[in-house]
Write a structure and sequence with these properties.
434 Repressor (Amino-terminal Domain), mainly alpha, 0% strand
Length: 108
């Protein structure tokens, strides 16, 4: 299932129109329509993140062959959102440090 189909399917599950979804993510309904039809070759991570919040699903929901269940009541932690936003631009040493902290915290 491609990203566009997943967007459309989840939007319909939530009984949202393309216009309503577009307003939630601050895009035009034409952009949403193009995504759903597969007319746009790529979607930025920022757009995927905004879609995930608007559609109450994790970003991974949009990845190929990976459709986790929608989140019940997503709570947006501003610190987590900042880490997600900045992570791609971090150097490898910093990413390794973040990964190590997560591993340590999961062992508790």
């Amino acid at each position: 299932m491609n990203i566009g189909h997943k967007i459309k399917q989840r939007r319909k599950e939530l009984k949202l129109t393309q216009v309503e979804l577009a307003q939630k993510i601050k895009k035009s309904s034409q952009v949403v329509s193009n995504w759903e039809r597969g007319y746009t070759p790529g979607i930025t991570y920022e757009d995927l993140r905004n879609l995930s919040m608007a559609l109450s699903v994790p970003v991974e929901y949009f990845m190929p062959d990976n459709s986790p269940e929608p989140m019940e009541n997503p709570k947006t932690d501003k610190r987590l959102a900042r880490i997600i936003k900045e992570y791609p631009s971090l150097d490898e040493k910093t990413k390794d440090m973040i990964d190590a902290i997560i591993r340590i915290s999961l062992k508790k």
